[in-house]
Specification:
Order of helices and strands: EHEHEHEHHEHEEHEEEEHEE
Structural class: alpha+beta
Largest sheet: 5 strands, antiparallel
Helix content: 25-40%
Distance between the termini: 34 Å
Strand order of the largest sheet: 11-10-9-12-13
Number of helices: 8
Number of strands: 13
CATH architecture of the largest domain: 3-Layer(aba) Sandwich
Number of domains: 3
């Protein structure tokens, strides 16, 4: 395949660009799909796979090794990872939880893994009117609920893939959330370090049954500019706030699609996202509580 490492070819032509890809479980693309895309004759790319040696990924590594040069490296050792990607033109991943590491290896860590700081930047840029607060204990969560009102979302600042995200609609659900968190926590505490809360943006009425009141906007950014984007509908989430699926293409009207896409692109500019394929959440129509002047409000990324 074209995706193998090669030296300078005959005639002095430079080699195809080299892309280092961090692999992990639950990736949006498999190694086979990644290698197949890299083998595009019109725009070939060399691939170097990296697999976490500290995780149980032997099967994944065997598949990767059959497709392209593959290195097993401890993903908690940043220096080792830097050595492993040396010589690559770019570093990427298709695994949510590995995005902060990929950004760090590219030298553009930005605000990856800090949803709390992302929200603050978006408020300051006027992209979102959602209030949020870091949580130190149960009392801080109850104070925020009293000040911000219902509903609200509680989640880790470095969370990915909906992990530990709770949608809380009233005092009864707040008590239930805290009770279940205490039961699960080894030390009996309800809130772990790094948790924060924010208002849940209530979107407009969904245009079809069984849909959530928010949509996803997939934006492809290159050199700091959004090159293309598309919108997908989201199905109703399951408790506590777990996404269940998407519908493509969206059934939103042209004006609503433009509004949520514009909201997502303005958010990415505010966050100074340089390159990548970014999935964001936006709400068609805005909650009366928010101060956003757009007809959409940024929900999450």
């Amino acid at each position: 395949m074209r995706s193998v490492d090669r030296d300078i070819r005959a005639g002095g032509d430079p080699p195809d660009p080299l892309l280092a890809v961090l692999l992990g479980d639950s990736g949006s693309l498999t190694p086979v799909q990644i290698a197949g895309a890299a083998d595009d004759a019109s725009n070939p790319v060399r691939i170097r796979f990296l697999v976490d040696s500290g995780a149980d990924h032997d099967g994944l590594a065997v598949i990767a090794e059959a497709l392209a040069p593959t290195l097993r490296v401890d993903f908690t050792d940043v220096d080792a990872c830097r050595r492993a990607v040396a010589g690559a033109d770019a570093v990427t991943t298709f695994v949510d939880r590995l995005c902060p590491l990929a950004a760090l290896l590219m030298g553009t860590p930005g605000l990856w893994g800090r949803k709390d700081l992302q929200r603050r930047v978006l408020r300051e840029a006027g992209v979102s009117g959602v209030r949020s607060a870091a949580l130190g204990d149960e009392a801080s969560l109850r104070r925020f609920a009293a000040e911000a009102g219902w509903p609200l979302v509680v989640k880790p600042a470095d969370g990915v893939s909906g992990r530990d995200v709770w949608l809380v609609r009233d005092d009864k659900e707040l008590d239930r959330f805290l009770y279940e968190r205490r039961a699960e926590a080894p030390d009996g505490g309800a809130l772990s370090a790094g948790m924060f809360a924010e208002q849940y943006v209530i979107g407009g009425r969904p245009h079809a049954p069984h849909l959530a009141d928010y949509v996803s906007v997939e934006v492809f950014v290159s050199r700091g500019r959004a090159r293309t984007a598309f919108v997908t509908d989201r199905l109703l989430p399951e408790r506590p706030c777990r996404e269940t699926g998407l519908v493509l293409p969206t059934g939103l009207d042209t004006g609503s699609r433009a509004a949520v896409t514009d909201c997502a692109e303005r958010a990415l500019r505010a966050l100074d996202v340089p390159d990548g394929a970014i999935t964001s959440r936006s709400n068609p129509g805005r909650s009366a509580r928010t101060s956003s002047k757009s007809t959409a409000d940024w929900a999450d990324s």
